């Protein structure tokens, strides 16, 4: 995906500024980006961690908007709209780090041996159920491919072995992971 260090810094700055403005009750500025990579339509997730623990994570799988706009919107969503957590508060700001995962397009697979743990994320769809886990999740928990598949099924609200069902679609993707320094 090849984002430059400057482009990565820009995305972190956009996410941080957006969250800061929202908490302070100020308008979010109109960000100007000058590189094609940041204007390209891409899927992305913004993850917030507080003292190393998940504090919010929301994203778009599909490339619907320019990357910088997706990051802006997902930063707000991760901070204030993740149903697993209360909205972020001002006193938490100094304890929260931002991680952005810029996604490659999804690729449907039929052979689970194509999954490279730590390289690929998994997206599972069965009927109205779907669940996604980012590549870094399997690394953090030291999961093997089977555990990663089972946990993605659970995230989708399915039984752990649902990935084996004929009507379950398994997609893989990679991500350019950007961490706040």
What does this structure look like?
This protein is of the alpha+beta class. 31% of the residues lie in helices and 27% in strands. It folds into 2 domains: 5-103, 2-Layer Sandwich (Glycoprotein, Type 4 Pilin); 107-174, Dna Ligase, domain 1, CATH 3.30.1490. The chain contains 5 helices and 7 strands, in the order H-H-E-E-H-E-E-E-E-H-H-E. Strands 1, 2, 3, 4, 5, 6 and 7 form a 7-stranded antiparallel sheet that branches. A hairpin with a 2-residue loop joins strand 5 and strand 6.
Q: In terms of per-residue confidence, which ranges show pLDDT below 50 for 5 or more consecutive residues?
A: none
Order of helices and strands: HHEEHEEEEHHE
DSSP helix count?
Answer: 5
The largest sheet is: 7 strands, antiparallel
Mean pLDDT over the full residue set: 95
* Through-space gap between termini: 20 Å
User: How is the CATH topology of the largest domain named?
Assistant: Glycoprotein, Type 4 Pilin
**Beta strand count:** 7
| Proportion of residues in extended strands | 25-35%
CA-based shape: globular
What is the CATH homologous superfamily assignment of the largest domain? Hypothetical protein ph0010, domain 1
Name of the CATH first level of the largest domain: Alpha Beta
Please name the CATH architecture of the largest domain: 2-Layer Sandwich
Radius of gyration using CA atoms only: 17 Å
Query: Helical content, roughly?
Result: 25-40%
Secondary-structure-derived class: alpha+beta
Number of domains: 2
């Amino acid at each position: 995906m090849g984002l430059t260090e400057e482009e990565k810094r820009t995305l972190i700055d956009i996410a941080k500024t957006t969250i800061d403005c929202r908490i302070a009750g100020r308008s979010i500025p109109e960000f100007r980006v000058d590189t094609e990579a940041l204007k390209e339509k891409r899927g992305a997730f913004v993850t917030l961690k507080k003292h190393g623990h998940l504090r919010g994570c929301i994203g778009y799988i599909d490339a619907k908007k320019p990357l910088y706009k997706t990051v802006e919107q997902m930063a707000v969503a991760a901070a204030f709209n993740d149903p697993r957590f209360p909205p972020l508060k001002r006193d938490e700001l100094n304890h929260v780090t931002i991680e952005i995962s810029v996604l490659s397009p999804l690729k449907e697979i039929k052979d689970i041996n194509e999954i490279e743990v730590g390289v690929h994320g998994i997206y599972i769809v069965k009927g109205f159920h779907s669940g996604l886990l980012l590549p870094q999740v399997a690394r953090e928990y030291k999961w093997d491919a089977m555990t990663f598949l089972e946990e993605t099924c659970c995230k989708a609200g399915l039984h752990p072995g649902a990935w084996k069902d004929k009507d379950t679609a398994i997609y893989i993707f990679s991500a350019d992971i950007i961490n706040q320094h």
